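Hey all, quick one. A colleague (J.T.) asked me to put the nicotinamide-adenine-dinucleotide job into the tracker so the inputs and the structure tokens live in one place instead of scattered across chat threads. No bug as far as I know, just bookkeeping. Sequence used:
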Amino acid sequence: MRPVAVVGTGSIGVAFGIVFASASRYVRMWDPIADSLGRARHDIADRLAMLASRGLLREPAEDVAARITFHDELEHALWDVELVQECAPEDIDLKRRLFDLLGRHAPADAVLASSSSALIPSQYGAGLDFQDRILGAHPGNPPYLLRVIELVRSPETSDKFLDLAAEIYADAGLTAVFVRKEVEGFLFNRLQGALLREAYCLVRDGVATVEDIDEVVRSGLGLRWSLMGPFETVDLNTRGGVQAHAARMGPAYERMGAERGQHDPWTPDLVASVVAQRRRLLPLDAWEQRVRWRDERLMLLRSFKDLQEES
Ligand SMILES: NC(=O)c1ccc[n+]([C@@H]2O[C@H](COP(=O)([O-])OP(=O)(O)OC[C@H]3O[C@@H](n4cnc5c(N)ncnc54)[C@H](O)[C@@H]3O)[C@@H](O)[C@H]2O)c1
């Protein structure tokens, strides 16, 4: 396996170093700001020790750390890499200049991936000759524990580099989700944003305190969401699945949206598309069995949480 480079060694850079190195890749870290590399070396050792103490590494922490090297020269960090993971601050001008530099110094067959949380590859790749290699690869934080990555392509990104990126992340234990259109915030932050927008409104309007809202998510919604997404949740909540749920709850959700000035009704065509996708994943005749699966998993989580709260 060829090495990867991590460019920018703050929170996300450190975390990607751990992800790749614990999956047997050699990782070269580079950062232009004084002291950043020293801090990254320390943070990596600290996180690896924590992971090892929980049995989450396949080999001793020192063996994983030994695959990570720290470089003062960008050219040294980029030599022969298969992928560059850009983890610099969320600043469009900085990222654009950086991608120009990366494209000129990294191997011509290397994927150039940005960790950006909201910027799109058409923005930071604008006007560059090698846009076919540039894509967004947005992790959850920290990616050594949240094992999903959003891959965002611009119209210029080639299938070849997108597929290569997905393969490299899969080797590192991250499941790729393909974002099919360039939208700000992708899926992770759009979904999180929808919940946060409503949470802020509820606090503003005196409906609940911050702690009340966190409690509803911690003990209610979040416990289920650690097993299932919002579509599977409502599919299993209602006999008859998501179709029955949309018929029963759609009008109420539409009124709640209208209260916030949002008008995005679940039209019959849209519901039909969601139902068709869910039924391919779970035929209705397997519904009862999946509900039992959900309850068993929730029981496991509940007993783990109860144990934690008692100790
Ligand atoms: N923190 C999160 O929760 C999170 C989650 C997912 C994605 N991201 C994204 O990851 C990227 C990095 O975020 P972070 O939280 O690690 O930031 P951070 O501030 O912790 O780290 C940024 C690093 O970039 C370095 N840097 C500064 N100028 C640079 C340059 N010109 N070239 C290369 N490196 C430079 C800094 O020295 C620092 O070490 C951002 O685009 C952010 O949106 C962050």
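Adding what we noticed when we looked at it: Residues 7-13, 31-33, 36, 87-90, 94, 98, 115-117, 138-139, 141 surround nicotinamide-adenine-dinucleotide (CB under 6 Å). Residues 255 and 261 are 10 Å apart (CA to CA).
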